[in-house]
Specification:
about 250 residues, alpha/beta, 5 strands, about 45% helix
Length: about 250
């Protein structure tokens, strides 16, 4: 049986430490230098540039594995687009969430016309074995163009206040955009936000709708999945804690 190659092969630091650094960067509003400082406090000496490279290499890889593990999203989709400024020019971030607030996908584009809407719908439907029953959007006419062509059987609801669920989902993006002093390019925004949406969302359930016991159970399950998917271990091995025992004889 052919196995997939280990993405951590030939890295100086162990997989546990790399996944922990990526987790810190995407779950909390931290810079690469902040993550470097947190690891240094635990006795792990690594440069912020190495952390940047880890996030570039493993962020989308981790997000894809989490996405494949999650249950099937709901059949009521909320879609919205907001503008982001990149290199002084307006770009548009398209986002879709289901009725439970789970992010379905995002796409950074230069326009918000009918062609851009159809491109986003095709991206959402790619690989799915079902179609939504209801699509909720704001009053942008481009959504109607794409819905009539690609989802003719879905009910389309549009209104000013119907789409608050998707609009609220943009808040973490706005916080990171300010913290990062804006995105450097469309590719940079797409690559970061695609990973950030799934990794951060994996550890941030809708806590206000859960009891304390239920939230702790969901949180424990999220950590278990993260460990299973991102820390390769030989049979019988036990995961090591993040600390000085993981420190190799290198500073890069």
């Amino acid at each position: 049986m052919k196995t997939s190659p280990d993405p951590h092969h030939r890295h100086r630091f162990p997989a546990e430490l790399i996944s922990h650094a990526v987790w810190l960067y995407h779950v909390f509003s931290l810079s690469f230098r902040d993550v470097e400082l947190l690891l240094a406090e635990r006795g792990v000496i690594v440069s912020y540039e190495s952390i940047r490279r880890w996030c570039l290499k493993f962020g989308s890889h981790f997000a894809g594995r989490i996405r494949r593990r999650r249950p099937r999203p709901g059949d009521k989709w909320h879609l919205d687009e907001v503008f982001i400024r990149i290199q002084g020019e307006l770009r548009y971030l398209w986002r879709a969430v289901d009725q439970n607030g789970v992010v379905l996908d995002i796409l950074v584009q230069s326009h918000r016309d009918g062609t851009a809407a159809k491109r986003f719908f095709k991206r959402l439907l790619n690989g799915l074995s079902y179609t939504p029953h209801v699509v909720v959007t704001d009053q942008l006419k481009s959504y109607g163009v794409a819905r009539r062509e690609l989802l003719p059987d879905a009910e389309h609801r549009e209104g000013r206040y119907l789409n608050n669920r998707a609009e609220n989902s943009h808040r973490p993006t706005r916080r990171r955009e300010r913290h990062m002093q804006r995105f450097k390019s469309m590719r940079h925004a797409q690559r970061f936000l695609s990973a950030h949406a799934f990794i951060s969302g994996h550890f941030r359930p809708r806590r206000h709708l859960m009891t304390a016991g239920r939230y702790r159970a969901v949180r424990a399950k999220a950590f278990k999945i993260w460990t299973q998917e991102h820390v390769p271990k030989a049979p019988g091995d036990r995961a090591n804690p993040i600390g000085p025992s993981l420190l190799p004889n290198s500073t890069s």
